[in-house]
Design brief:
Number of domains: 1
CATH superfamily: RNA polymerase II/Efflux pump adaptor protein, barrel-sandwich hybrid domain
Number of strands: 9
Order of helices and strands: HEEEHEEEEEHEHHHH
Largest sheet: 6 strands, antiparallel
Strand content: 15-25%
Shape: globular
CATH class: Mainly Beta
Radius of gyration: 23 Å
Length: 218
C-alpha cells in the first residue's frame, strides 16, 4: 500500500510539473517576438478603407474634409524599433514631398515625405518621440487640412490596386536588400522563404538607408 501511494504521488507530481511547463511554453509563445515576424505578415496592419500613397503613407478623408495621415506598417517594420522620432508641430504648413516624420536608429536616419500640401491641424496624442514601431504602424500621426485634396486623390491607391502596388514594391525591396548584402550574409538578412525580417534596415549602414530612401520614398 505504501509503495502504491508513493507511485501515485510520483505520477501526480510529474503530471503537475508537465502542466506547469506546458503553461510556461504557451505563455512564452504568446509574447510579442516569440514567433519571428516578417514584413509580409504585417501587411494587414494597414487600416481598412484608407488611401495608400507612393510615399508609403496612408490617408483617410474625414467628414470635415480634413485627413488623417499615417505611416505604412511595411516602412515601420523595415526600420524596426526607432531610437527617436521627430514630428511636426501643430499649425505647421507642409508641401508635398516635405519631411513629415524623421526616424532615427543610432546615426542612421529615414525621412518620411508628405503626400500632399496642407496644414497640420492636430497631432495624435498617443504618439511621442519614443513611440514603438507597432504603435506608429497602427494609428494616424497627423490631422491635416489639405490645400486641394481633389488634385491628389487620382494618384492614390485603394483596395485591390493598393495591394498590387504593395506586392510589386515589396518584391523590389527584396531585390534591393539581396543586392545590398554580401553573398555570405544573405541568409542572415533574409528570413525563411526569402521574406524580409522585421528591422532588416538596422543591419545596414547609413549609405543603404540613403539608397533605400532615394529609391522607395522619393
Amino acid at each position: 500500500m505504501v509503495v502504491l501511494l508513493v507511485v501515485l504521488s510520483i505520477i501526480v507530481f510529474v503530471a503537475i510539473d508537465y502542466l506547469i511547463q506546458r503553461k510556461k511554453k504557451q505563455s512564452l509563445a504568446s509574447q510579442p517576438g516569440a514567433e519571428k515576424l516578417t514584413i509580409s505578415k504585417i501587411f494587414h496592419m494597414l487600416p481598412a478603407g484608407v488611401f495608400l500613397q507612393p510615399s508609403f503613407t496612408w490617408s483617410k478623408i474625414l467628414d470635415t474634409g480634413n485627413l488623417f495621415v499615417g505611416i505604412h506598417p511595411v516602412l515601420m517594420g523595415l526600420i524596426g524599433e526607432p531610437d527617436k522620432t521627430e514630428m511636426l508641430q501643430q499649425g505647421q504648413e507642409i508641401r508635398k514631398g516635405d519631411t513629415i516624420l524623421t526616424l532615427h536608429k543610432g546615426q542612421k536616419v529615414m525621412h518620411v515625405k508628405a503626400p500632399l500640401d496642407g496644414t497640420v491641424v492636430s497631432i495624435n496624442p498617443d504618439i511621442d518621440e519614443n513611440g514603438s514601431w507597432e504603435k506608429l504602424s497602427h494609428t494616424w500621426l497627423y490631422g491635416i487640412k489639405p490645400v486641394n485634396v481633389a488634385d491628389e486623390v487620382p494618384g492614390w491607391l485603394i483596395a485591390e490596386k493598393s495591394r498590387e502596388w504593395l506586392n510589386d514594391r515589396y518584391q523590389q525591396m527584396k531585390s534591393f536588400f539581396a543586392q545590398s548584402s554580401p553573398q555570405s550574409q544573405l541568409g542572415y538578412t533574409m528570413a525563411d522563404g526569402g521574406d524580409l525580417p522585421i528591422g532588416i534596415l538596422s543591419k545596414f549602414e547609413s549609405k543603404t538607408w540613403q539608397d533605400f530612401e532615394e529609391k522607395f520614398l522619393n
